[in-house]
Amino acid sequence: MESCLPATVLSVVRGANKTVKFGLHILTWNVGTAAPPNDVTSLLQLDIQAQDPDMYIIGLQEVNSKLSSFLIDLAFNDPWTILFTSSLAPLGYVKITSIRMQGVLLLIFVKCLHLPYIRDLETNYTRTGLFGYWGNKGGVVVRLSIYGHLICFLNCHLPAHIENTNQRLDSFERILDMQQFTDRKARAIFDHDLIFWFGDLNFRIADHGLHFIRESITKKRYHLLWDKDQLNNAKKTRPILDGFLEGQLLFKPTYKFNLDSAQYDTSGKKRKPAWTDRILWKVKECPPAGETEAQSSQSKKPINVVLNIYDSQMEYGISDHKPVLGTFCLEFEKLVTQALVELEPEGVWVPGRDAVISYCMLDEYPSSTWDWIGLFKVGFRSHSDYVTYIWVKDDELMVSDDICQVYLSGEDIPKAGGEFVLCYYSSNMESIVGVSSTFHIMPECAESSLGVDDGMDVSCDSLAQGDSDTC
Q1: pLDDT digits (tens, 9 = 90+) for 249-299
Q2: Distance (Å, rounded) from C-alpha 36 to C-alpha 348?
Q3: For residue 256, is the peptide bond before it cis, meaning its omega torsion is within 30 degrees of 0?
Q4: C-beta of residue 249 within 8 angstroms of C-beta of residue 226
């Protein structure tokens, strides 16, 4: 198929080197129904220049789910979603999906350049509270493919209290059994190439007394507590946890704290500290028997997972839990190297003058009469954050066997100008399947000073911008 993309962009999209390093930043936090903090810079590590993940996965538990708040959030984005979106969108991250089950919320953000290679997107949830009738406990799932690799993100809030280990494991097993997807390639969670399981899993430190636990924490002898951690022990005995890996717990237990404090619970209940908030992962190909977790993460697999950071953020005190983050580098071969739809603006775009968009699509693309192309300002938040859009089939004009064109009315072109991209949205796939290179729209006042006339044609090659894959 002949491409309508500039050569400078094609060198990035279809580069000879198909191996990609894909960075993930996963955050889990039981926010205890609190309002969001004013700033999440350190939570997202936006102040660390070396951290530049390709995707952010944010899992929250106990988001305020009072009826009045929940109904408002259904009509409008909840305050947490607004905060994270406002923090990440200016940096080029787009919210591709979210799912909420009462207080359990999962958000996924990805860099704009990866949007055409994020496919097979589905969400699901399973209630386990009150025997499955109430969503205060349970799990929410986002599954998708990244460059052809199927990945599942599972955010859980499991039953509380030290004596309920078996109930937690039973709830987890129920979530795994209940989650079913329409994609034949991966009907169930364990069918995916890679699973990330995180959340307030509520496992506690058994047997040890309060004084011993606190003394071990004070002296940073965390290893003295690992063999009594309920999740660590369950991984040795419960088949359902076979193959799940986790980084070492080298940070303070994240529960339970006094509010606005780094001091553990001093109330009358005096809850024992515990690592309730966790991030684990599982590659579909389980590590061989006898191989350590560190060795298995380096084994030759379709997806190689490298854990870079596993830590808590003690400075946040709005909840009795501290947030936990994990940063990962996924290494895999690109199984998908071409966007389903390639599109570009033609010539110079100025307000008041009709503009032309050229596009072409792969033969296997499932097109629909409800597909549309949106004009987005650089830094847009989601697929619905367009400036304007057009239905592609309404005014489609075939200019060759492979390439089509549509016209955008000059009245819809922003008068203020700026930096923009075009995105092709698939109605059948419910996702963006094509993104143009960045291009400039001249402000209305610049048209006369630059001498733009109807015959002037400037190639968009000079406006194309490339990005490289980094972790």
Answers
A1: 999 999 999 999 999 999 998 899 999 999 999 999 755 545 554 454 444
A2: 43
A3: yes
A4: yes
- The pTM score is 0.88
Helix axis angle, 230-237 to 165-178, nearest 10°: 60
Radius of gyration from C-alpha coordinates of the chain: 24
3-state SS class at 12: helix
Q: What is the DSSP string of 396-415?
A: -EE-SSS-EEEEE-GGGS-T
Tokens representing residue 323 in the block? 């947030």
Collapsing DSSP to helix, strand or coil, 446 comes out as helix
Helix (H) or strand (E) holding 233: helix 230-237
- Two tokens at 45? 């590590």
pLDDT digits (tens, 9 = 90+) for 21-47: 999 999 999 999 999 999 999 999 998
Give the 3-state secondary structure of residue 138.
Answer: strand
The rounded distance, in Å, linking the Cα atoms of 84 and 22 is: 21
CA–CA gap between residue 177 and residue 63 (Å, rounded): 25
Of 17-31, 146-160, 415-429, minimum mean pLDDT range: 17-31
Integer Cα distance of 71 and 76 in angstroms: 9
From the list 115, 109, 117, 116, the residue with the least C-alpha distance to 149 is 117
- Between 246 and 18, residue with greater pLDDT: 246
DSSP-derived secondary structure letter, 37: P
Contact 230, 237 (CB under 8 A): no
- Which residue's structure tokens are 């979106």? 85
Mean pLDDT calculated for residue range 148-167: 97
* Contacts of 132-135 spanning 24+ positions with Cβ under 8 A: 132/174, 134/102, 135/65, 135/101, 135/102, 135/103, 135/104
Q: Which of 168, 326, 165, 152 is nearest to 248 (CA)?
A: 326
Cα separation, 73 vs 1, in Å, equals 45
DSSP 297-354: TTS--SEEEEEEEEEE-TT--SSSB--EEEEEEEEEE-S--S-SEEEEEES-B-TTS-
Report phi then psi at 162, rounded to 5: -65, -30
DSSP 3-state percent helix, strand, coil across the chain (nearest 5): 20, 35, 45
| DSSP-assigned letters across all residues of 355-408 | EEEEEEE-TT----TT-EEEEEETT--BTT--SEEEETTTS-EE-SSS-EEEEE
Show the tokens assigned to 273.
């500290």
Among 362, 327, 330, residue whose Cα is nearest residue 13: 362
In angstroms, rounded to a whole number, what is the distance separating the alpha carbons of residues 424 and 133?
39
